[in-house]
Write a structure and sequence with these properties.
alpha+beta, Pnp Oxidase, Chain A, UbiD C-terminal domain-like, six-stranded antiparallel β-barrel, 11 helices, binds flavin mononucleotide, binds manganese (II) ion
Length: 474
């Protein structure tokens, strides 16, 4: 099977997890309105809009990351194995390969150059009511370090500024901001290939925050289990995936800064107006019937893309702190700010509490600055269920332990956090952290421990409801 976006959509379709919209939609409001309406009903299928008013031949796809089971389907693993599988495959990168000769690569079936390379040819979506403009929200971007020549790939948002210009948001945590700084110091533009429509595992590799110098295209190869095939870009000294749906070739210009945003970001609130460099489009290439992909910013679709990558970092850090980690989850309900950790605690030889859960939570905080609330639970709690974790808080947790008088929470008043958290007024510092230890103490008596047993009925497993309930009249 091809490693492209359409293959991923077919995979979801086969699993009954894709909805298609045949009626023409207005990209200015209707695409995200449909996704939002589904979300209000608690539904998160991937959606492909097959007709976009004013853009014959184009389709728009969203919600590909909206549930864990979709990410699991792309990886070919069980939903509760996503973090472990990602972590393992990111350890075995596979370098991309350059393919050439023969017919045009799919991503270059249509080539728009010069004045034809205008953003008016792409149905860029307006995501939320007060967004400043249409955006590329899933801006998977390939660039090269002007100093070392090493390739870099990340995901950034790009605000449409003019017919052939964008203003991107390049934050200090992203490698690309260092690359652009180096280019700017030399007085030259940074060439970028923007890919809003690639295989989801390629987008996940881009979202993953790898150390400087790592070629995230090789990480993408590791996730896919085979090398990503590349072809030369038309107007840049860069290679781009042969199977991309759309490639926007552009240059981020040194010098001036221009307003970017408001745009509803990961926190589903409008980010304040920032200043970004001008990005000038030099070519647009795409497949014959291209599919533009969006990241539904502020909703589980976008949150999960970042969250599963953060889980990998947290898994590694917490495993350094303890051998007992059984799982970590950054739930979409927490907008990427919350983390649940499940662990098997080991008492000391005297049967006492060891306190490892505190080391573990501190390690998680250190691994991902965006995290501000951590709840540690025992491994019998289903950390993929918000209700189960809140249930553990309700039934197993007291802020001050009633027997020992130990505090079971730790507040860290001022540390670095997310730059997009409305509760810290969209500033990364100061951001406060709360660690909650909802594990059951190791040194309880058998009787005290039994007090936590969750009551079950005798026969629920054996009950076939159809034999008990009247069928509802239709
Ligand atoms: C949907 C989505 C949108 C994102 N938008 C931005 C953005 O606008 N600016 C930014 O700096 N990082 C953004 N990120 C985070 C970066 O993609 C992430 O930090 C990545 O590791 C950056 O790669 P780099 O360090 O190689 O540049 C976004 C992530 C996701 C999943
Ligand atoms: Mn990088």
């Amino acid at each position: 099977m091809a490693d492209d976006l359409r293959a991923a959509l077919d995979l979801l379709d086969a699993a009954g997890d894709l909805e298609t919209v045949a009626r023409p939609v207005d990209r200015a409001w209707e695409v995200t309105a449909v996704l939002d309406r589904l979300e209000r009903d608690g539904r998160f299928p991937a959606v492909r809009f097959d007709a976009v008013q004013g853009f014959p031949g184009w389709a728009i796809a969203g919600n590909l990351f909206a549930t864990r089971s979709k990410i699991a389907a792309f990886l070919g693993c069980a939903p509760d194995r996503v973090t472990e599988t990602l972590a393992a495959r990111l350890e075995s990168p596979i370098d991309p390969i350059l393919v050439s000769g023969g017919p045009a690569a799919p991503s270059q079936e249509v080539v728009l150059l010069g004045d034809d390379a205008t953003l008016g040819r792409i149905p860029l979506v307006t995501h939320h009511e007060r967004d400043a403009a249409p955006y590329v929200s899933l801006g998977v971007t390939i660039a090269r370090d002007p100093e070392t020549g090493r390739r870099n790939m990340g995901v950034y948002r790009y605000m449409q500024h003019g017919p052939r210009t964008f203003v991107p948001s390049l934050t200090s945590i992203a490698n690309i901001s260092d690359l652009f700084k180096k280019a700017e110091e030399r007085g030259v533009p940074l060439e970028v290939a923007i890919l809003p429509g690639v295989h989801p595992l390629l987008a996940l590799a881009a979202s993953y925050s790898a150390p400087t110098g790592t070629d995230e295209l090789a990480l993408a190869g590791g996730l896919l289990g085979r090398p990503v095939e590349l072809v030369r870009a038309r107007t840049l000294d860069l290679e781009v995936p042969a199977e991309a749906e759309v490639v926007i070739e552009a240059r981020i210009m040194p010098g001036g800064r221009y307003p970017e945003a408001p745009f509803a970001d990961m926190s589903r609130s409008y980010s304040r107006v920032k200043q970004g460099p001008m990005t000038e489009v030099s070519a647009i290439t795409h497949r014959r019937n291209p599919i533009l992909q969006l990241a539904f910013s502020g909703h589980p679709d976008a949150t999960n893309m970042a969250a599963v990558c953060h889980e990998v970092a947290i898994l590694r850090a917490t495993r350094q702190a303890s051998r007992g980690i059984t799982g970590v989850h950054v739930p979409a309900s927490g907008y990427g700010f919350h983390c649940y950790i499940a662990m098997k605690k080991r008492p000391t030889v005297e049967g006492r509490e060891r306190g490892e859960q505190m080391n573990v939570m501190l390690a998680a905080l250190g691994a991902v600055p965006q995290i501000k609330l951590i709840i540690a639970v025992d491994d019998d709690v289903d950390i993929y269920s918000d209700e189960a974790v809140l249930g553990a808080l309700a039934r197993r947790f007291q802020v001050v332990d009633p027997i020992t008088r130990d505090q079971r929470i730790l507040v860290i008043p001022a540390a670095k956090g997310a730059s997009y958290d409305p509760s810290s007024f969209h500033r990364e510092y100061p951001n406060s952290k709360l660690l909650m230890d909802a594990t059951i103490r190791s040194d309880l008596t058998e009787e005290q421990r039994n007090g936590f047993t969750e009551a079950s009925t005798v026969g629920a497993d054996r009950i076939d409801l159809a034999q008990y309930l009247e069928e509802r009249t239709r």
